[in-house]
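Reply to dn_fold:

You asked what the input looked like. This is it:
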Amino acid sequence: MSSIERSVHEVTPAQQPMAPATADELWPALRAEALRSQEREAVLRDFLHLAVLRHRDFAEALAALLARKLADRSMPLERLEDVARLAFAEQPAIIAAAVADLAAIRSRDPAAGSSLTPFLYYKGFHALEWHRIGHRLWRSGRRDLAHFLQSRVSEVFAVDIHPAVPVGSGVFIDHGTGLVVGETAVIGDDVSILQNVTLGGTGKERGDRHPKVRDGVLLAAGAKVLGNIEIGRGAKVGAGSVVLQDVPPCATVAGVPARIVGWCNDGPPALAMDQSLPE
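and this is what came back:
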C-alpha cells in the first residue's frame, strides 16, 4: 500500500480501545453482580457462592472456576486449581490479560449484560484463559502438562489451540465451538474470533507453517486461514472464507479463495464486530 493508502486505512491510536480495568477494580463489580444475581434467582445461591462470593480476589475465583470446568476422576479439582494459581503467581500478566478479555467481551458482545455472565458462562473465555495457563507451562518446559490441558479444553469446550501459540490481550472468542489454531500461529491484541475458525497449515510441512493474525483483526464465522501467511492489522475475514495469501492491513477479504472486497474505515473490525461485507 502507498503512504496515502496507509494513512487512510491504518488504525490510528485514537481508535484503540480504552485500557481495561485492573483485577482489583473488576473484583468488587463482579461480587456486586453476583449478589444481585442471587437476589433475582435464589436457586443459584450456592453456585454463586462457590464461583464468586467465597473468594478473596479475582485470581482466586478464576483459578477455582477454571478448575471446576476441567476436573474429572483422573485430574481432581484441587490439582487443577493449584496449576492455575501457580501460573498466575509466576506470570501475573495472565490475570491482566483475563481482565482485558472480559472487557473485550463486554464491549463487543451485546448479549453480555455484565462481566459476571461471561466470567461464569462463556466457554470461549474459559478456553482462552486455560490456554494462557497452558502457554505458560509450554514456555517453562512443562509440555506434557500443557498438552494434557489442551486435550481437556478441546474435549470440554470444543476449542483446540496448541499451547505453543502466543495470544495477545483483549481477545474475544465468541461461541468458540470448532476453533482450531495450529502450533506456529500467532494471535495479536484486540482480536475477535467467531466459531468454526481454523488457523491451520496447508499440508504436512514442518517448521513455521501457520498464520500470524495481527492486532484488531476480525475472523468471522467459519473462516479458514491456512499457511504461514499474515493477516494484517485491522483486517476483516468474511464468514466462510478460505484465505491462502497475505491480507494487507485494514483489508476486508471474502470468498473461496478469499479476495479483497473492501477496506476498513471505522476503526478496527474486531471492535466493531460488523461481519457484513461491502455491497
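The chain has a mean pLDDT of 92.
Hope that clears it up.
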